Amino acid sequence: MRPRVLLTHPNGPRTNYYGAQALAELHAIADVTLNQSDDDELSTDRLLALAKDCNAIISDRTVQFDAARLDQLPHIAAILRVAVDIRNIDVPAASSLGILVCQASRSWVPAVAELVIGLMIDAARGISRANLAYKQNHTPSISTGRQLAGSTVGIIGYGPLGQRVADLCTAFGMTVLVHDPYTNPTNPAHVPVTLEYLCATADFIVPLAVATPETENLINATKLALMRPTAYLINLSRGNLIHDDALRAALDSHTIAGAALDVGRAPDQMPMPDLAARINVTATPHIGGLTVPAIEGQALETVAQLRTLLAGQVPPGAVNAPAAHRLQQLRRV
Questions:
Q1: What is the mean pLDDT of residues 177-197?
Q2: How far apart are CA 182 and CA 243, in angstroms?
Q3: How far apart are CA 116 and CA 134, in angstroms?
């Protein structure tokens, strides 16, 4: 008897955020229930109906697994998240019920790091503004831009993504400042500094820390006031790190030169529409990790995790294995 797995991605996002190769490999090891809806919102009733005969769930980022929902999924032994970010899952509640929670690794690091550089260049050279003007049959305004070589970048968070961005910035001839209270740079070209010094000194401030209660609104009015009027805020981490009202005020008062945002507090972690619409903001719709290698890497990882579970082992990425007593149900399938 084969296990049955629910893949929560709706029809459109399934192609972009899971991919054909991973889906084919998933079909090879399990019976798969698909969310055939075109709607990103999966109601509780719909979720429970789809998951009724399933042993595991592979979850996208839009479905919330709170304690009330988890309590109504008695046959689910594991929830595999196609991402590092598992904030849509109440892990303590899952643990109390014996449900294993797994996260994927960071196959998206090269893709997001490249977009960081792209948005830095776009913001500082006005590429999108000029392109928009031409498409509206206007003559773009011509102004002096800022080059990366010789500029200073301040990177907040020195995890795998922060390190990759720091290496790229070094290759562009930038001075690299780093703030991370939990680790020190391994490259002597990456200089550890305080957050206040970073904000006051850098030409590009790039928050790449993980979204936690500690980093909520990390870039607030106080930090923005420290920034140079020629500096740019570049955010590809999470919208939670930025105080949006403070950013609006800083842009209105020209406290900073501009911003580039791939993330925000709008649905699906996209930039807020009013911020994205500003002429001094370059915005993209949370596409930092949306490349084939990045998406397939995490999707294929969930297939590998399920394969490992079926072999009676705990896969890489499991965050609460000691509490996951329902795995016995899955192993008996």
A1: 96
A2: 23
A3: 25
Closest of 62, 64, 102 to residue 84, by C-alpha: 102
Any idea where the domains of the chain sit in the sequence? 4-107+291-331, 109-283
* The residue type at 113: A
Same topology, domains 4-107+291-331 and 109-283? Answer is: yes
- pLDDT-based confidence at residue 332 (cuts at 50, 70, 90): low
Rounded to the nearest integer, the mean pLDDT of the chain is 95
In CATH, the number for domain 109-283 is 3.40.50.720
Note the pTM of the prediction, 2 decimals: 0.82
| pLDDT surpasses 80 at 1 | no
Identify the bridge partners of residue 101 per DSSP, sorted by sequence position: 79
pLDDT at 326: 95
Q: What mean pLDDT comes out for the span 21-26?
A: 96
Residue of 22, 55, 52, 63 whose CA lies nearest to 299: 22
Tell me which DSSP letter residue 241 carries.
Answer: G
How many Å apart are CA 101 and CA 21, to the nearest integer?
23
Look at residue 155 and tell me whether its pLDDT is greater than 70: yes
3-state SS record for 160-216: HHHHHHHHHHHHCCCEEEEECCCCCCCCCCEEECCHHHHHHHCCEEEECCCCCHHHC
Provide the CATH topology of domain 4-107+291-331: Rossmann fold (3.40.50)
Order of strands, sheet of 152-156, starting from the edge strand that comes earlier in the sequence: 190-192, 175-179, 152-156, 204-207, 232-235, 258-261, 281-283
| Residue 243 dihedral angles phi and psi, to the nearest 5° | -85, 105
